[in-house]
Amino acid sequence: MQRTPWHILGAGSLGTLWACRLARQGLPVTLILRDAARLASYETAGGLTLTEQGTGHLYPVPAETFDSQVPIKRLLLACKAYDAEQVVTRLAPRLAEGAEVILLQNGLGSQDAVAAAVPHARCIFASSTEGAFRSGDWQVTFAGHGFTWLGDPANPVQPYWLNELTDSGIPHQWTADILTRLWRKLALNCAINPLTVLHDCRNGDLQQHPAQVATLCAELAELLEHCGQPEAAVNLLEEVQRVIQATAANFSSMHQDVARGQRTEISYLLGYACAAADRHCRSLPHLQRLHRQLVQHLQALGLPST
């Protein structure tokens, strides 16, 4: 039986990690790169390199640009949240009727925008805790085993290809409550990432600011309850503390973005949370103050604040 090809857009840490593991299993994988210059750079590198436990392996995954005419039946969208709607709109003419788009974006907001842009496709939301970081162009280092939850708020039926993830060593679970997972991760990111930027510290250093973390978690839990996500609020502070300890030596993704002088996903994390609070007429002063402080900090650095 001919396998449906995986098209992967976004050669960052997670996109590269998925591409290498799927290709290693012998599944058909194609990278989509933004232009001919990136394609030339990739071809010079000879493929993607995945490093696990200190050992690197090169995977010569085929690549193409947006301009290819090959129809797309399954697309893993692993780009940043702020790029998701634009790139999927650009790819929309190539998406076959009933194509599946798996969304690996941080935060909330981009998923609905993508779904609206490609109504002829099935959008599957994903929430991942897998750890990986780019160690160079076209290179990724697997930093720690995590888990990926997948689900479709519009259709609870599991896709048939989940066994391909199992065979490829991608730990996952299909869930009818994917929105609960996404809200929970949003709250975790809002409680940790902005503070690591403002304190310019690793995750573990937030243990020196317990009152600030606890206050934020209390307000985020209140927000989750009023947004109809009470399950996502259960024991939020305890999980935030656990994540801070478990990832103590790591820099958060937002801290890494700022350190590289890159745009952050503030609009899909803190910005989304504060907008939700406004919609529900909730006053969450510490969360809203944190958002203002982060916006001012990014502007002072000359970085986008949306």
**Run of helices and strands:** EHEHEEEEHEHEEEEHEHHHHHHH
Which architecture of the largest domain per CATH? 3-Layer(aba) Sandwich
- Helicity range: 40-55%
**Total number of helices:** 12
Radius of gyration: 19 Å
How would you characterize the largest beta sheet? 8 strands, mixed
Distance between the amino and carboxyl termini: 46 Å
- β-strand number: 12
CATH class bucket of the largest domain:
Alpha Beta
- Shape annotation: globular
Structural class: alpha/beta
Which descriptors would you attach to this protein?
single chain, 306 residues, alpha/beta, Rossmann fold, N-(1-d-carboxylethyl)-l-norvaline Dehydrogenase, domain 2, 2 domains, 8-stranded mixed beta sheet, 4-stranded mixed beta sheet, 12 helices, 12 strands, 43% helix
Topology:
Blueprint (H helix, E strand, L loop, with lengths): L5 E4 L3 H12 L4 E5 L2 H10 L2 E5 L2 E5 L3 E3 L6 E6 L3 H11 L3 E9 L6 H8 L4 E7 L2 E6 L2 E6 L3 E4 L10 H6 L4 E3 L3 H21 L11 H17 L3 H4 L2 H11 L6 H7 L10 H10 L5 H16 L6
Structural description of this entry:
With about 300 residues, the chain is an alpha/beta fold. It has two domains: about 5-175, Rossmann fold (3-Layer(aba) Sandwich); about 180-300, Orthogonal Bundle (N-(1-d-carboxylethyl)-l-norvaline Dehydrogenase, domain 2), CATH 1.10.1040. It is built from twelve helices and twelve strands. Helix 3 runs parallel beside helix 4 (about 110-115) and helix 6 (about 180-200) crosses helix 9. The chain is globular and about 55 Å long. The model has no long low-confidence stretch (mean pLDDT about 95).
